[in-house]
Specification:
heterodimer; A: 247 residues; 3 helices; B: 156 residues; 78% helix
Chain lengths: 247, 156
């Protein structure tokens, strides 16, 4: 059974037993999740009514500003795509976004289940993010569900860069619940705390510039010529309810 | 009858685990509905029944999380068996006994699991285990109350 699971997972799919369990649980699990979310929202709405109203006003103002900016952004993106096509370069990944709801979160396994799958064009290794930043990549896909490997997973790794005057690029890896470790080979460039860390874009599926977190600690290992930057993610995973998958 | 009750309780536990567990977290400790369901079932069904119920609870939990099911199934089966074994000497089953068993079973199940699949941060995992165990103890009480009405009428 374990071997069947591992083989299916390596192929970006889900084995029959896991799929059956999830399908059976979904019958009640999704309504239960929706009801508990509704109750949670209602309770929070009562206690945070004032703050939510102010936040709503702020979001509306931001939406208006964004609608002006979006048209310009589309023009520029279209121009970039045309220039890349002229130069024979492949298109930039992550142009299309699919919104999804988290229907299961398993912190010990560093996994999240989303209610979208291959029917919506979801494929393994596509990045998953919230408005605050990257939360993981799609790991295995079914027709109407997919599992996300979260950035906290020790198996998670992604090309990342510290955005200073000179971007410093390396590989960021999950390190348990609250932190990622970004390994760099350049020990000479200074890094300031709280500098943003974003994806470096050296991937077929993950575009450049997706926010990951901020640098909170820097350790130099001069013996091995490695610099380790502890990165605190922008997103608090336990609070994530809806996400976007870039495809 | 016992089969159907176990099926319904575990299915309900799986659904709650998927849909409500993380939303009910207090201080980072979310209830483990499937382990909480195993405790009263194991007490009611005896050693072999406890092991079987634990095994399937583990299978469900592993399947839901998309994790390796073997570690979940084995750790829950061991915990279910031991919980039923320690409970077999009890002549009269009281709610407090069920609560204590649910706490003990949760700690045992999670510690056995920890040895089979070591987490990245063992200290925080063990701390969370205490919170989850207390939570499960409370959750096991209504399950026990339900089972008392139904299973107890069925010969154990």
């Amino acid at each position: 059974m374990g071997r069947a699971q591992t083989n299916a997972r390596n192929a970006g799919q889900v084995d029959a037993v896991t799929s059956s369990v999830q399908t059976a649980s979904d019958l009640i699990g999704r309504p239960v999740g929706a009801v508990s979310q509704g109750v949670s929202d209602f309770t929070q709405g009562i206690f945070r009514a004032g703050g939510l109203r102010a936040e709503n006003e702020r979001v509306k103002a931001q939406e208006q500003a964004w609608s002006l900016y979006e048209a310009r952004l589309r023009d520029m993106e279209s121009e970039i795509e045309q220039l890349r096509a002229l130069m024979g370069l492949p298109p930039i990944p992550g142009r299309e976004a699919v919104t999804a709801v988290a229907i299961g979160y398993y912190p010990h396994e560093h996994r999240m289940t989303l209610g979208v799958g291959s029917d919506q064009g979801i494929r393994p290794d596509q990045p998953v993010l919230t408005a605050a930043g990257l939360i993981g990549v799609v790991h295995s896909v079914e027709a109407q569900r997919c599992q996300v490997r979260l950035i906290s997973s020790p198996q998670f790794q992604v090309g990342a860069a510290v955005m200073g005057e000179v971007p410093l690029e390396g590989i960021a890896k999950g390190e348990g619940r609250d932190v990622l470790i970004l390994q760099l080979l350049d020990l000479t460039q200074p890094i300031e705390l709280d500098q943003p860390v974003v994806t470096s874009g050296y991937s077929e599926r993950i575009p450049r510039g997706l926010p990951i977190g901020k640098a909170v600690q820097v350790e130099d290992d001069e013996q091995f010529g490695i610099r380790r930057v502890r990165v605190f993610p922008h997103v608090r995973l336990s609070n994530v309810r809806s996400v976007v998958v870039l495809k | 009858m016992r089969f159907w009750i176990a099926l319904v309780v575990l299915w309900g536990g799986a659904a709650l685990q998927q849909g409500a567990s993380e939303r009910l977290a207090i201080l980072g400790c979310a209830p483990d509905f499937l382990l909480a369901a195993v405790a009263p079932l194991a007490l009611a069904y005896g050693r072999s029944g406890g092991a079987v119920v634990g095994f399937f609870a583990g299978l469900l939990h592993g399947g839901l999380a998309g994790a390796n099911m073997a570690q979940y199934a084995a750790s829950r089966a061991i915990a279910g068996f031991i919980a039923a074994w320690t409970g077999s000497s009890i002549e009269k089953l009281e709610p407090v006994t069920c609560l204590i068993h649910a706490v003990g079973l949760t700690v045992l199940g999670r510690v056995v699991f920890m040895f089979m699949a070591p987490p990245a941060q063992i200290g925080s995992y063990l701390l969370a285990t205490i919170g989850v165990a207390v939570y499960n103890g409370v959750i096991a009480l209504p399950i026990y109350a339900l089972l008392r009405k139904t299973v107890r009428k069925d010969p154990l």
